[in-house]
Design goal:
single chain; mainly beta; OB fold (Dihydrolipoamide Acetyltransferase, E2P); six-stranded mixed β-sheet; about 15% helix; about 40% strand; globular
Length: about 100
Amino acid sequence: MRTLLPLAAAILAFSLSAPPAAAEERTVVGTIVGLDPQARTLSVADGKGARWNFKVLPDADIDLKAFKEGDRVSVSIARATPLNMMTSADFLRKGDKIVKVPY
């Protein structure tokens, strides 16, 4: 029992000092099911039935008028997004993109 305590303390210290895993770009592919160019919002339903809601910020250089409901798109968030931070609602910023993809 006495030998386990120092080992447990060492494991705890190492786990607290280890850097987090690198996050990478996140992409959602699906069909636009909601679009409001004036409010700068869109909703995309992916192939698993999840609905992803996005708010396009003015600096994103994304023209929502180029899209319509029913378009199949790929939405990429270019900045690093930790796995536990990707949510079903996110802001699209400069560097993020939306592109039409074939069915």
